Amino acid sequence: MITITINGKEIRLEKPVTILEAAEMHGIMIPHFCYHPLLEKWGGCRMCLVEVEKMPKLQTSCTLYVTDGMAVRTESDEISKARKAMLEFVLINHPLDCPFCDKAGECTLQDMTIKYGADGGRFEEGKRKHPENIDDPLIVRNMERCISCTRCVRMCDGVQGASAISMVNRSNRTFVEPFSGGRYNCEYCGNCLTVCPVGAIMSRLHRHAYRPWQVEEEIKTVCSYCGVGCSMILQTRENNIIRVTPKSEIGVNKGILCAKGYFGYGYIQSGKRLTSPLIKRNFKLEPSSWEEALTLVASRLIEIKKKSGGESIGGIASARCTNEENYLFQKLLRAGLGSNNIDSIVRIGFGTAQRYMEDVLGQGATANLISGIPTSEGIIIIGGDPTHINPVLGVQIRDAFRRGAKVFTIGYTPGLERFRTQNISPYSFTETTLLGNILSELLSVINLRGENESFESKIKGFEGTSIEDIEGICRVNRIEFKKMIKDLSDVSSASLVIGPDIIQRSEVRTNLFLLTAIAYILNARVYLLAERPNEQGVIDMGCLPDSLPGGRPLDVESFRRRDEELWGCEIPSKTGLTVLEMVEAANSGSLKGLYIMGENPVFNLPDGSFIKESLKKTEFIVVQDIFMTETAEIADVVLPSLGWAEKEGTYTNLERRIQILRKAIDRQGMEDWRIISEIGERLGLKMPYGSSRDILNEISKVSPLHAGLTYDEIDKGFDLWPYKGTPLRHKLGAGDWPLTNALDSPDNNTLYLFIERHMFLSGTMSRHSTALNSIYQSTGSYGTPYAKISPDVAGRIGLKDGESVTIKTEREQIVLPVKIEKGMPDYAVLLSNNFREKGAMSLLPFKIDPVTKTPAVERCEIKILKREQE
Amino acid sequence: MFSESVIKELEEVRVKYPDSRSALLPALYIAQSEYGWLSPEAMQAVSSALNIPPAIVKGVSTFYAMFKHKPMGRHLIQLCTNISCMILGAETLLDLLKKRYGIEEGGTTSDERFSLIIMECIGGCDVAPVMLVDNDYYGNLNEEIIVEILEKYK
Known about the structure:
The complex is a heterodimer. By secondary structure, chain A is α/β, with parallel strands linked by helices. Chain A contains 28 helices and 36 strands. Chain A has a 7-stranded mixed sheet with strand order 14-13-26-25-24-15-16, sandwiched between helices. The longest helix of chain A is centred in the middle third of the chain and has 19 residues, at 290-308. The termini of chain A are far apart. Chain B is of the alpha+beta class. Helix content of chain B is 45%, strand content 12%. Chain B is built from 7 helices and 4 strands. The relative contact order of chain B is 0.12.
């Protein structure tokens, strides 16, 4: 215990912190510019000077740690004089252009100057001049205002790890600059904007649009982009979101955001939003009234049910909708239409891995806190770049590396290039062989714990490929491989980060078995990367053909009976169709009606033209969305719904934390849940919900996992799995699905199409964000979108950066510019899945895995043709 | 953009330090001696050779006056005009350089033969006035000697 006195007040501290932190903990504010709780301590601005007894000079309280018996004074005439003098120095060059600076009103420098009054400077020379830089599409730099506190640089280099800006030049010509001097070409996380205490680095999105005191409301909510679920504050004025900021005290993100979160909110106010229900008449979607559209949907669904039975109707749920909406959606399908054909795109990645691992490793196996990553000693990353798919999680991995963790990346992970101990890049499609070898090598040095004997016997029975294959098949240096195994076997706390690319393979079952086995042997925390905000929620709400809310299996009669009683209806016992089976059933004609909520299967499932043709064969499709998507275009009825920030609800993030989404702006229209209840009522169900709270209230009765959960309880901190409920008790599974052998590795010089999970893009939402599109383009003079290739491939074909090419798959072709990127594997062409008619996913042909029903979207051979060759 | 020998030199300094950021200053010297100045391309090349983000390279290199960020002549004259040198006639030498070679302080001759930088004390007060031409040190200068010396640099 350390006892100190600050301004005569006795303070007891458990562990040594700085004087400034100790003071803030006890409500004593010490002025500062350069200190920020997230950043490395620096002691540069000299504003936090305090008197410490027995120390001859004033001390910087942000760098001096408390010691027992210390007596500190934070305000005195001498201190005030020193602070005033510091301010006078700062103001020598600061332009004092507060009347037209956006920061005025929330500017630390302004507040300090008013408090310590260094208004009249004694400096007669002129102020430095440096024109405001607006070369960047999103960030404007006004270096005349900069006070050189270096917060932005320490944020960029020390926290985000992008290292895109630094202090350039010296003395009073010191300015913050990106390498180019103009455009940032960085990760655009916006975190430098968050920490700037003055108006030196600011967002262009709300430039000169309002003053801080004109913010009408500040709403705490959750980001709508990925599965991390960052907390953020939406500042609104006149029913518009004008700015998004993080807050260091709240949420999983603790004060940082990524490009999508910080700059991507604009889609919600896009002029392309659907405004009125549409009904297809004479092959054209035409506006209609709500009443007409809802009645039509209900009557057509009833008609199909009567004619062909409930199993001829399917529903595709959405990981972009809230838990309440997904719950209601499956209830509508099960109770209202008598169908278990409920699934979502979550299946083709996150969902399949999550359910398999939970079965083998135990309930909650994937519910690990993101804050656990920085404290891991060893981290394995496979199947995607976390800094692109879940950027804020990726930052935690960078942090772990800085703290000394061993980080091993398998495959192409450019965002972790400077943050890894080793990168093992197996040749294309040989990850299964690599994983098999990791397993058998680990098995020879680590003893099994005996927790799940049946799974252990399966591990022992696995015939790992021989170590020769590491060089022969994977083309990985054997010594490097052995080094990784040695390091891994030494760590006492490991994390395993798994991305979607390793799941969307024909070896999906073997891959998942091997990953689960590796996690089991290393006792590793598993993190499944999730591209959408509510992937776990979709699973927990029972939007699965074989599972009821709360993860209760459909084929257990007692669970079914329980829900039947609560819902007052009968639930069919037959397992329904998965998402791709629904497409196939549509193609064969057995699926007649399809209800799609907040999803764009034509774009987000592989082989878009096949999906589109199949869905067109159904008798009736209703799509509920906020934009006119590729899928909505082929629908019979399109219902516009309200989006994120326009409704209340909950999301369950990838660590299974349940978080509240709050309404920030009013918009005419209906939330997804309200549309479903309107249709439900017309189908004869009782859906008397006044708000999403009423639905959560029902969920808490139906789902044992969510028992007793309310918004207030979530706010009180019951947001972590298993909340206040009971997870399913079950015997640990043996992971008993038949394994597939690793396929042969392909030849040299064959190019394959891969999906680029882009840091700035995320499909139909980001497509409508001008800000995100502008930074995607700003990284080069390319058109939108571009495909990425390695310099080697470019050399082979004779392509220049930015050159337009034709990319040909077996059946399709598109014209795009190429971007040449160093470090890319020489067999890959990367294309994002974001832009209309040019999405990677829909170009990829697929095979369904018979057990997991996930598509293998690999080995899509493509050719790149120079334009004049055509 | 670097020749193979430079890349080898860079690699040699890189492995001397546990953290490649520590090798940045020597690496920048190597790059500068190759081109005479640090162009954005040269900084970019140092950045990729050491795997240090380019912005960090720029931040460090612009901090030090010894690193040049605009094209320099083939030879760099660094003339001291601090007190000792000034008393002993450095300013006359400066005028001579300006007149004879048509060069300004901080400038470069039109034939790109010389660049001139005025230095604050280069530690040769005992033999003032002094100058550096590239890495060669010359003291006890006068109008004849300086011309004689500079004529050796083509």
